[in-house]
Amino acid sequence: MKKNWALKSVSLLFALVLAVTFSSVAVANAKTAIAPKEKPYIGYGKFDTGGIGYKEFGALRGAIYGAMKEAGAEAYPLDYIASKTGLSKKTVAARINRMVKKEYLAPLMSIQVNDAKFFPYYVYYAAIKLKPGTTAAQKKAFTNSIRDDKIFCTSYETKGDFDYWAGYHVESWESWYKLERPYLENDIVESYTLLPASAQVRHGMSNAYAVPEKAMMCDVAYPSNFDALPAVTKGKLTADDVKIIRAWNKKLPLEKQFNWKKIAKISGQSEKDLISLLAGLRESKVLLGPFWAFNWKALGVKRRFFFVQLKNATVDSKRVAMLYDFARANDFNLVYYHSDSLIKFTLIAPEGLADLEQCRNKIKSICGDSLVKIHEAEEVQQLRWWTRLWYPEKFNQPGGVYIYKD
Length: 406
What we know:
Layout lengths: L1 H33 L19 H18 L6 H8 L3 H13 L3 E7 L10 E9 L5 H13 L6 E6 L3 E7 L2 H7 L1 H4 L4 E8 L2 E5 L2 E2 L21 H4 L6 H10 L5 H4 L2 H8 L3 H13 L3 E8 L1 H4 L3 E8 L5 H12 L6 E4 L5 E8 L5 H12 L3 E14 L22
Helix pairs in contact: 2-11, 3-9
C-alpha cells in the first residue's frame, strides 16, 4: 500500500512538473506571438510608455539640430553669450561657426540611459587587450568594425594596458552573448574585462544625474587648467573661444539656452512648446545636455585613461564614498563606476589641461589602502561619441540616426 502511494506521489509530482513546464513554454510562446515581426532590440528604438519619452526627446533634438544645421550660430543665444564674454555678437557668431565647421566641437544631446525608463537597455563597456603579435592590419580591421557596427556606443581605441574601451547597449545577458561576444572572443583578443556602468557620472566634462547635487549636477566640470586650451591646442582654439565655451557650455536658464525664436521658426514649433519640452526632459532626467562635445584628436589634446582596480573585500560604503570624491574631481573629464567588475572606476584626464601626476596622486588619495593597481592607457582615437563619428570620410550627423556622408 505504501509502495503504491509512493508511486502515485512520484507520478503526481512528475505530472505537476510537466504541467508547469508546458505552461511556462505556452506563456513564453504566447509572449512571442504578441509581436511575431519584432526583431531583437539593437541600438536606438522607439518605446512609448506615456509621459516624457523617446518621441519627445527625438522631437526636441530634431528641432534643435535642424535649426543649428540651417542657422549655424544664429541658433545660439548670441546676446547672452556676448554679454557674458564682452565680445561682439558678430565675433561670437564667427567663432562658433568656425569651431563647428572645423569640427573642433559639436553640440550633443543624449539620452541619460540609466534614468530614461523607456529605454530597455543599460550601458556597459569592455576593456579589451589584443594578443601580442597582432598585425597593424588586423587591429585596423577590428577598430573599423567597432566604429561602423551600430551595436557599439561611445568607444575608444587606446594603447597601453588595454587596446580598447568599447561601449555597448545591452538589453540582457542573452543579447550580449549573441551580439557582442563574437567581437570579444576571436583570434586576436587576448582578454577582456566587462565593465557594466553602475553609475554614469561624467562624460566629456558633462556631469550626469549620478553626480551628487552639490557637485554641479547636470553642469560641466572643467579641468583645472582649461584656460590653457589655446596653448595646448597650439592656437586652434583662442582665448575668445574659451570664453564662449565657458559661457554657453553649461546648464543655462531655459530661456537663455538657445535662440528659441529662430529654432521655432525653422522647426515649425512654438517657442513655448519647445521650452516646455526641454523643461520636461530635464525634470524627468531623460536628457543629458545640450552641451558641446570636443573632438580632442582634431584639437591635438592627448587623454589618459585610468582604470582603477580595488581589493575585492572593499565594502560598498567605501566605494560609494570614492564615487562621490571622483565626482567632485574636475580634472577627470570622464568618470564611470562599475560595481560588478574587477575594475571599479574608469577615469579620463586630458593631458595639459590636467596634471596627470596629480591625477594619479588623487586616485591614490581617494582609494587609500583599498587600491590594488591603476591600469593606464593613452587614447588613440574616439571611435564614437554617442551617435556622432569624427571622421571626414564617414561623418555621422548627430541625432540618433546613423547617416554617413559620401
